[in-house]
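Might you be able to consider the sequence and fold that I enclose below?
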Amino acid sequence: MTDSVPAETGADLPGPTDPAGWLTLPDVAERLELSISKVHQMIRDRELLAVRRDGVRRIPAELVANRNVLKHLPGVLNLLADAGYDDEEALRWLYREDPSLPGTPAAALAGDLAREVKRRAQAVAF
């Protein structure tokens, strides 16, 4: 995945396409009980989404539920990458309000509509 340029919205000020909370890579490593190298590998393998905010790579907190990455997230990220989305575009897609879902695709990934989000990501790819 490519590193994104710093965005105008800060990590503490969510914008219309930003999650409410962020985790740094060391925070994610601690939460998942993994090495920082493994977190970097997960980002490269599109198992996690990281973007730069205030010059630091961060991961949306809600994508790392408890001590696990959301089950369908890697599939959705790979589908969006196949559609040509970079990290910032994937973030915007995940956090764009969708009236047919409970809020955003990112929020729906944590619930019963995860497969619907994956289906929609697949439709974007084609």
